[in-house]
Amino acid sequence: MHCRSIYDRKSLKRNRRESQSFGPRFARAHSPLFPRLISRGRRIRLCPQGGNVRQRVPVTTKAAKATEWRRCLTTVQGPTAPRRAEGLHVRDAPTSGCALLERGPLRTRIALLDIDICGPSIPKIMGLEGEQVHQSGSGWSPVYVEDNLGVMSVGFLLSSPDDAVIWRGPKKNGMIKQFLRDVDWGEVDYLIVDTPPGTSDEHLSVVQYLAAAHIDGAVIITTPQEVSLQDVRKEINFCRKVKLPIIGVVENMSGFICPKCKKESQIFPPTTGGAELMCQDLEVPLLGRVPLDPLIGIQEFCNLHQSKEENLISS
Amino acid sequence: MSHRAWPSAGVLFQRRSLEKPVLIIRSNLLQKPGNLAGVRHIILVLSGKGGVGKSTISTELALALRHAGKKVGILDVDLCGPSIPRMLGAQGRAVHQCDRGWAPVFLDREQSISLMSVGFLLEKPDEAVVWRGPKKNALIKQFVSDVAWGELDYLVVDTPPGTSDEHMATIEALRPYQPLGALVVTTPQAVSVGDVRRELTFCRKTGLRVMGIVENMSGFTCPHCAECTSVFSRGGGEELAQLAGVPFLGSVPLDPALMRTLEEGHHFIQESPGSPAFAALTSIAQKILDATPACLP
Fold first, then answer.
1. How far is C-alpha B224 from the chain's CA centre?
2. Hey, of A88, A199, A203, which one would you mutate to test binding to chain B, going by the most B CBs within 10 A of its CB?
């Protein structure tokens, strides 16, 4: 895959093994391999000068690290809020929908960062396929949907829609670091970060990199079924483990209203009480429910931002 | 070194002197040939994006193949979100060691369907598996080499979404056993199809044959008025199959009965033969059976 990025393969090879990982130790099936893996590893050193990752100077104090990240994100004035969740339709549509709504009549300035490196869907959903990222003296310019909504995704850096991003963790982490450091967002009120499903390298990395810059919280998206909720409980535990505040949970695909007879059906039945009961048990706010809307699925949605906004407000 | 049972042969040839070369055979060659030696066909279920129903399709495909009289195993390589134990009603079961390695969890008395997932290895069901690549790769290698699958007709491998560490580790670990191919799952929308195109590129680059594309969540028939609505658009999977030159195996509609049996951990193929998704799933399983080359006994 050809990716247009100022990327240093050698420096990444030096930092191939990253140390910090949270996780369970196996109670029953034990292997001699695991103790070796747990004890191995080095911390990634952040570059205090910023810019090219080739200049690797160890940062010795937490205060110095915090200063550097605040400098990089100094133009992001408002909250930064990663959104985590289950799967594609579950997550990307609410993320982009919320970005569109938040920029509403008050002209709030929004930045939308897609760190789903393997499956970047935000360009398609926002109707920005084929757009390119330009580099200026102040950094990479995000792609603007409107003058107060900028988007950055690895999808803009791929030369063809068929290009597959087959990267291991360290390379993805390097790309996320570049997104956070090198993109010139300008003055923004909100930075919304769309993450891939699960609890993997990308999640750990973005939480580590943004820790010094103060993340306001995470919004977790789910569907009503128990199969989805059990993964979301893991996600909530992950957030608590890494001390990431949880803003709330959004239940997507919550009911379907037939366009012909207008009766509601539960395609994904909440057999264990849905997100509402889970939120009560785990003491997490339920922000709302989004029903299944066929308008989300049609291709024209990518280009009809205005009509999508009206539908969201009216429904 | 029991956890490193390499299936391929390796012989060290050492010259002690010019007159008499000495053949040294590595000790691990004398061990078992690999726990996957008894598995006839391996199918990987892939998708470029999450939430399209890979675990659902893997589970139902395995049940449909079992319904057709085959012995099936399911390997759940989705370490961050292991859903298959819940879908088959096997949560809370334990993995035990046997003389050949880890024993998979059998779902019935006849031992015609077995399952291995990281979900069985967690102390609590809500515990998050927050690992980076190397640790995940190591566990996947253990799943492939240390689980005593025994004699199986099919091993269905359910992968997490994307093209990342887990996929590369799975393909590297399974390469010596020549997997039959990959089943790619998508939904009809353009957004999902766009990511599945990348998955097809991944299969091409790694040399994995694509057996076909399955379009999931393809239409919903309202139970009140029988009107079929395309909730997630329509036709995307079929167009992609034509574009990429791979077979289109079928469309599975949104079926509340299927969702309910997955929630309750029942076996959909046995319990709901009259529902819309049943016909689609059994036809996909039949196409897989037809595409499988006959094996020598």
1. 36
2. A88
Q: Where are the strands (E) in B30-99, listed by range?
A: 39-46, 72-76, 96-98
Residue at token pair 């003296």: A137
Phi, psi at residue A226, to the nearest 5°?
-65, -35
CB atoms within 10 A of CB B109: 6
Which stretches does DSSP call E strand in chain A?
A: 80-85, 110-114, 134-136, 139-141, 143-146, 149-153, 190-194, 218-222, 246-257, 264-265, 286-292
With contacts defined as CB-CB under 8 Å, which chain A residues touch B97?
29
Q: Find the radius of gyration of the CA atoms of chain A.
A: 20
Closest among A91, A48, A92 to A67, alpha carbons compared: A48
The one-character DSSP state at B19 is S
**C-alpha Rg value of chain B to the nearest Å:** 21
The length of chain A is 315
Instruction: Please name the residues between 96 and 115 in chain B that touch chain A, using a CB distance below 8 Å.
Output: 96-97, 102
In sequence order, the 6+-apart residues with CB closer than 8 A to the CB of A241 are: A22, B128, B130
CA angle B268, B271, B275 (to 5 degrees): 70
Size of interface A-B (CB pairs under 8 A): 251
Q: Are A221 and A94 in contact (CB under 8 A)?
A: yes
Model pLDDT for residues A71-89, shown as the tens digit of each residue: 444 344 444 444 544 443 3
Per-residue DSSP letter, A157: G
Task: Specify the range with the lowest mean pLDDT, choosing from A56-70, B166-180, B281-295.
Answer: A56-70
The answer to whether B161 contacts A196, with C-beta atoms less than 8 Å apart, is yes
B162 part of contact set with chain A, CB < 8 Å: yes
- Its pTM stands at 0.74
Contact at 8 Å (CB) between B202 and A164?
yes
State CA A28 to chain mean position distance.
Answer: 34
Q: Do A89 and B51 lie within an 8 Å CB cutoff? A: yes
Residue B235's region, left for phi above 0, alpha for psi from -120 to 50, else beta, is left
Query: What span, in angstroms and rounded, lies between the C-alpha atoms of B184 and B101?
Result: 31
**What single DSSP character describes residue A103?**
T
Q: How many CB atoms lie within 10 A of CB B63?
A: 25
Q: What is the ipTM of this complex?
A: 0.77
Partner-chain contact B198 A298, CB within 8 Å: no
Scanning every residue of chain A, which has its alpha carbon at the shortest distance from the alpha carbon of B1? A32
First to last CA, chain A: 41
Which residue in this structure is represented by tokens 């040294």?
B24
Residues comprising chain B, all counted: 297
Within B147-189, residue ranges assigned H as helices are 165-174
Q: Please give the helix or strand (H or E) that residue B228 lies within, else none.
A: strand B228-229
